[in-house]
Amino acid sequence: MKDPHRQGRPSPVPRVLAIAGSDSGGGAGLQADLKTFQELETYGTCVVTALTAQNSLGVQRVSAVPATLVADQLESVLADIGTDAAKTGMLPTADIVAAVASAIRRHGVDRLVVDPVRTATAGTALVNDEAFGALRDILLPLAALVTPNVPEACALLGVREDEVRTLDERESAARALLGLGPRAVLLKGGHAAGDECVDVLVGADGGTRFFAAPRLPTRHTHGTGCTLAAAAAACLARGHSAAEACGTAKAFVAAAIARAVPLGRGAGPLWHAAWREPGIRGSAPRT
Ligand SMILES: Nc1ncnc2c1ncn2[C@@H]1O[C@H](COP(=O)(O)OP(=O)(O)OP(=O)(O)O)[C@@H](O)[C@H]1O
Ligand SMILES: Cc1ncc(COP(=O)(O)O)c(N)n1
């Protein structure tokens, strides 16, 4: 980003900004993002877009933060601390999407990861249709990387989910998403069938990469999407390429799922500190 107040001096630590909703249960949203940033040895800042009353069983209540307050938070962070990368999660209204796009442009944040959050795993809508359309039209063209799951990819493209089943169909869908303007697309495979979770990366270099990891037999996967996108943003802030960032992010999320904790009566959260354990990074996916 343009960082006039640093006058060309590098930041003492990589900085990453999360622009997302709060999850009171601590498993997804901003809470997952900040834990991930810390584990990957980056300094995390956060702009709150929504408050949710949420736990392992689902989302009980959602309240959007006024767009002007989102804009003020963005200005407070970016005009002083600055950032080396940013990541968006839950952007509940079109006004909030517009405020985010405007700040990203004005401050020249070019390492932007957009996680096109739409509904919680439990099915509750987190974002209205107008906001999702605004994200597609004005935020995706600013993204270095967008990380949809299969239902989100289908909603962005306006196609049915049964048209995006096989790996070839997922690769074609990822390529079609490049047409919406992001520089790279990681189409996640958590929702696809099979013994492996295969994520497909297509990017500006024209190539395709597959990141595969065994599908872990657990229901404690609350916050996987947020964690993956946050880890990718932390890696971009460290100066890694999109492909390197996706490889590390996949390994990070796999390790955190392997050590997920059965808290609450429903889908429990990941254990982000798994990354510190000797040997756990050995669960790195094949690429
Ligand atoms: N059971 C699992 N075992 C291993 N990896 C998984 C599992 N479920 C999801 N993943 C991986 O976690 C990451 C997030 O994928 P997923 O498709 O679940 O995203 P998402 O639906 O956006 O997540 P969320 O459930 O947080 O909304 C991907 O890298 C995916 O391959
Ligand atoms: C604030 C917030 N942001 C994102 C998600 C999506 O995560 P998941 O699909 O795992 O519920 C969520 N539940 N809450």
Could you characterize the architecture of this molecule?
This protein is α/β, with parallel strands linked by helices and 287 residues long. It has one domain: UDP-N-acetylmuramoyl-L-alanine:D-glutamate ligase, CATH 3.40.1190.20. The protein has helices spanning 29-39, 67-81, 94-106, 129-139, 150-157, 167-178, 224-237, 242-258; strands at residues 15-23, 43-55, 58-64, 85-88, 112-114, 145-146, 184-187, 196-203, 208-214. It has a 6-stranded mixed sheet with strand order 3-2-1-4-5-6, sandwiched between helices. The two termini are 30 Å apart. The site of (4-amino-2-methylpyrimidin-5-yl)methyl dihydrogen phosphate has 17 residues, from β1, β2 and α7. One of its GO terms (molecular function) is ATP binding. Keywords: ATP-binding, Kinase, Nucleotide-binding, Thiamine biosynthesis, Transferase. Its EC number is 2.7.1.49, 2.7.4.7. This is Hydroxymethylpyrimidine/phosphomethylpyrimidine kinase. It holds the Pfam family Phos_pyr_kin.
What labels describe this entry?
287 residues; alpha/beta; UDP-N-acetylmuramoyl-L-alanine:D-glutamate ligase; six-stranded mixed beta sheet; three-stranded antiparallel beta sheet; 8 helices; 20% strand; disordered C terminus; binds adenosine-5'-triphosphate; binds (4-amino-2-methylpyrimidin-5-yl)methyl dihydrogen phosphate; phosphomethylpyrimidine kinase activity; Ribokinase-like; Hydroxymethylpyrimidine/phosphomethylpyrimidine kinase; ATP binding; ATP-binding
